[in-house]
Amino acid sequence: MWAELAVTAAKLLVVATVLLTCVPIMVWVERRGAAFIQDRLGPNRVGPMGLLQPVIDAVKLFFKEDLTPGGVNPILYTLAPMVSMFVALVTFIVIPFSADAGVEVFGVPLKGIHVAPDLGVGVLYLLAISSLGVYGIVLAGWSSNNKYSLLGGLRSSAQLLSYELSLTMSVLGVVLVSGTLNLQEVIGRQGPEIWKWHAVTQPIGFIVFLVAAFAETNRLPFDLAEAETELVAGYHVEYSSMRFASFFMSEYINIVTISALTVTLFLGGWQVPWLTATLSGWPLLLVSAGAFAAKVALLLWLFVWVRWSLPRFRYDQLMQLGWKGLLPLAALNLLIVGMAMGQGWL
Fold first, then answer.
1. Residue 11, Cβ density class (10 Å: 0-12 exposed, 13-18 middle, ≥19 buried)
2. CA-to-CA distance for 31 and 81, rounded, in angstroms?
3. Global pTM?
4. Predicted pLDDT at 107
5. End-to-end CA gap in the chain
6. How many domains, in total, are found in the chain?
7. Alpha carbon of 332 to those of 151, 209, 246, 291, 335: distances in Å?
8. CB of 282 closer than 8 Å to CB of 107
9. Does residue 183 contact residue 122 with C-beta atoms inside 8 Å?
């Protein structure tokens, strides 16, 4: 029992460290990517190619004065960034990011690298926990005693609730074909053949899920909750120092998590065509984990690319796309998947 607890604690520490490390890396990639797309230099003074700029920013936020405006609800105002950060961190723990290679550590089988036990309802857990992230934003908007914060919180709650429907319905197509809510089994059902991956067999569901993922993470072109031209900074306008940094970090961790979920559900997870089927033991574990990380990295770059390529929607366009565009497409995808399964094509 103690060995299992030690291995679980070690995996938890590794995953938390990786997620928190991804934040400064993504900040650097965001800035250099924006500079590349806009044909300028970007950060290039602090460290080689500006690599130490995120570290300097983190130090600045850590030592910055933490102000609490008058008139706020002190309990909810302090609780809001904690909720956002907690939800962002615990969402990732059920995602398997390597194959079950049959290896052991201290006599404990890894059974595919993920922190939590191999939940039979991993998909349901992810959808349930990720939906709690809106509470941190709404609490921040309401408790700040600022009209711009309140409007940002209301916008975000309406946006997340609207796009969660489309996202969930696109996931139902995957669950219907896989016949399970276990994420490791969803990956195994896709196999190493690309033509069996759900992004290929369910292109409509994949596109709906990807677009809804941008909206769920409040990223451009769907960042209406933080629209600077209208709301100054939205729900976190009254936050400073590490409380502001908590919202900042939770957004990037959510991007990593939704990218990992996209890879798991639609892009074969840790599978590598024509390679993972021929490996076993530690080589399989390392190759599969590397393949999973590479796929997630490509999706993270897509988030950066889209942010600096597309303009922000108007709010009415955002809601129309969610209710009149993505939701019917998600329902159509579910219908097509059901008919294809009835004919034995899937």
1. middle
2. 24
3. 0.91
4. 64
5. 41
6. 1
7. 33, 13, 38, 32, 5
8. no
9. yes
Closest by Cα among 255, 4, 254, 263 to 109 = 4
Q: Give the pLDDT score at 6.
A: 75
Closest by CA to 98, choosing from 296, 295, 300, 269, is 269
Q: How confident is the model over 335-341, as a mean pLDDT?
A: 91
Q: Span 35-55, mean pLDDT?
A: 88
Q: What is the pLDDT of residue 213?
A: 92
Quick: pLDDT tens for 14-30: 888 888 889 999 999 99
Identity (one letter) of the amino acid at 140?
Answer: A
What is the distance between the alpha carbons of residues 50 and 52, in angstroms, rounded to a whole number?
6
Domain hosting residue 160, numbered range: 2-342
| Sequence letter at residue 147 | K
**Cβ neighbours around 154 below 10 Å, total:** 16
Specify the residue for token string 């230099």: 41
Average pLDDT of the segment spanning 199-222: 91
Q: Are 181 and 174 in contact (CB under 8 A)?
A: no
pLDDT grade for 1, boundaries at 50, 70 and 90: low
Number of other residues whose CB lies within 10 A of the CB of residue 344 = 6
Per-residue three-class SS string for the chain: CHHHHHHHHHHHHHHHHHHHHHHHHHHHHHHHHHHHHCCCCCCCCCCHHHCCHHHHHHHHHHHCCCCCCCCCCHHHHHHHHHHHHHHHHHHHHHCCCCCCCCCEECCEECCCCCCCCCCCCHHHHHHHHHCCHHHHHHHHHHHCCCHHHHHHHHHHHHHHHHHHHHHHHHHHHHHHHHCCCCHHHHHHHHCCCHHHCHHHHCHHHHHHHHHHHHHHCCCCCCCHHHCHHHHCCHHHCCCCHHHHHHHHHHHHHHHHHHHHHHHHHHCCCCCCCCCHHHCCHHHHHHHHHHHHHHHHHHHHHHHHHHHCCCCCCCHHHHHHHHHHHHHHHHHHHHHHHHHHHHCCCC
Distance in angstroms (rounded) separating the CA atoms of residues 140 and 299? 29
